[in-house]
Automatic annotation (TrEMBL):
Record-listed E.C. numbers: 2.7.13.3
Official protein name in the record: histidine kinase
Membrane topology annotation: Multi-pass membrane protein
Superkingdom: Bacteria
């Protein structure tokens, strides 16, 4: 109960770690989404800069009509101060409204403002303007005026008599930009629009990348030895070079593998004839010499020669089988793996008897799968041959076949010296042998086994028997139909 509660308590932490790992993992879709958001931010920034610059930094003469209207009102209502002030106030609000202000907009940093003088006295000042004087040095000319570290654009017009003056004031670009930022007019639209942009951006990118995913899916569905060109031919300029280069790479790999297989096949075939001839001649010479000068030393020397010859024959045979195991596959068919194991045990019992090792079938459960018979025969023969070869005299090799869910499980256990854990992956490499082994061998048997298992979509694991010295080999093969087999190996080891 405590273990269950502890597992439940750790679940949020696992989900958090999993989510963080997914966020950290590079993603092309996420990169494109960030690029779109960044581009939108850049365009928004440029648009705001252009709008602000055009709205507040253009020639103040564009507001000449409003400014002169205020001048006329101030002159005509000189004898009515209350009406004069209300009229100027109404015109000021209308001017600010045209630039996005309003009745309650008292901030001169975001809208044009006015100052009206009459007979040397200030009769009207827009709200928000600094109390310090903002005045031009020349009439009818727009100028930049600095007041308390802030820049203002000002333009003053006056009546013919010079008794009435109206100064139009707008904030400088820097002041407008800072005010715009501080009030969130720049960042708030981005914050509000980004969530609504991400989903359409994600959908558009996913749709745009469908040809890419189609090519990737075709490549991912291939077997380990399928080097055929990609059948999908995209029309898009971005994908065509990738597919063409991939197909060119596959062509070079096919040519390289064909040369390697041709070399191995030619070399093995060329070696078989002289090795067979050498064996025949040595055996004939042995018979001839034993008839005339039989000595114990001669028997020993001839035995060594024949042993080396047998080893060379075995190596050539395994080279041929390894070459064939990399060839194209035949069509898989349904077969009974348990029947195949029994058949091979019966065929190999004579070899085990010569080595004074007993083979027993400890588990025999009916198992049917889709596979290539010759490949599986080669796998079984190599496993049992290795087990009997490395087992001591009088020992037992145990073989079992059973089902485990949707997998067939084949186990072969011996009582030999085993393989150190550090070498259990390397023994599947071609021509690699345990340095401590005293038995002769070519180092190709387990490489052939691994290639057959990989072709059938299975796994192989080496482990200890648990109760005595030795090695347990566990092979797991899927029971379901196979898409394709990439390797076929003939029977024999």
């Amino acid at each position: 109960m405590n273990a269950v509660l502890a597992s439940i308590a750790r679940a949020p932490a696992r989900l958090l770690r999993s989510g963080w790992q997914r966020v950290r993992r590079p993603s092309l879709v996420r990169r494109l989404m960030f690029a779109q958001v960044g581009m939108m931010t850049l365009l928004w920034s440029l648009a705001i800069a252009v709008l602000l610059n055009s709205a507040f930094n253009e020639d103040l003469s564009i507001m000449d009509a409003s400014q002169r209207s205020m001048l006329v009102v101030a002159r005509n209502l000189t004898d009515q101060p209350a009406r004069q002030y209300e009229s100027l106030r109404s015109m000021d609000i209308a001017l600010r409204n045209s630039f996005g202000g309003g009745d309650d907009n008292d901030d001169a940093a975001m809208a044009p403002s006015v100052i009206v003088w009459q007979n040397g006295h200030e009769i009207y000042r827009s709200r928000g303007l600094p109390p310090e004087g903002i005045a031009n040095t020349r009439p009818d000319i727009g100028e930049t005026v600095q007041v308390n570290g802030k820049s203002w654009r000002a333009r003053t017009i006056e009546s013919p008599s010079g008794k009435t003056r109206v100064t139009l004031v707008t904030p400088g670009t820097e002041q407008v930009w800072l005010t715009f930022q501080s009030r969130g007019y720049y960042i708030l639209p981005l914050v509000i629009s980004v969530p609504f942009l991400l989903l359409p951006a994600w959908l558009s990118i996913r749709l745009a990348l469908r040809p890419w995913r189609k090519v990737a899916s075709e490549i991912a569905s291939r077997g380990p030895h399928d080097l055929a060109p990609v059948s999908t031919q995209p029309r898009h300029d971005e994908l065509q070079p990738m597919v063409q280069n991939f197909n060119a790479l596959m062509e070079r790999l096919r040519a390289s593998i064909a040369r390697e297989q041709s070399f191995i096949a030619d070399a093995a075939h060329e070696l078989r004839t002289p090795i067979a001839a050498m064996r025949v001649n040595v055996e004939a010479l042995q018979s001839l010499l034993i008839e005339h000068i039989p000595t114990e030393r001669q028997d020993e020397l001839f035995a060594r020669v024949l042993s080396s010859n047998a080893r060379a024959e075995r190596l050539v045979g395994q080279l041929l089988r390894l070459m064939r195991s990399n060839a194209s596959a035949s069509a898989p068919r349904a077969l009974r793996l348990d029947d195949l194991v029994q058949e091979r045990l019966a065929a190999l019992s004579a070899l085990a008897h010569v080595r004074e090792v007993e083979i027993e079938l400890v588990e025999d459960e009916p198992v049917e799968l889709m596979g290539d018979r010759d490949s599986l025969v080669s796998m079984i023969d190599n496993l049992i041959d290795n087990a009997t070869k490395y087992s001591p005299v009088g020992s037992v090799v145990s073989v079992g076949i059973r089902r485990d869910g949707d997998m067939a499980v084949l186990t072969v256990s011996d009582q030999g010296p085993g393989i150190m854990p550090a070498l259990r992956e390397r023994v599947f490499d071609r021509f690699f042998r345990d340095p401590d082994q005293t038995q002769t061998g070519s180092g190709l048997g387990l490489a052939i086994v691994r290639s057959v298992i990989d072709a059938h979509g299975g796994t192989i694991a080496l482990g200890d028997t648990g109760v005595r010295p030795g090695l347990r080999v566990t092979v797991r093969l899927p029971l379901g139909p196979l898409g394709s087999l990439g390797i076929v190996a003939p029977a024999g080891s």
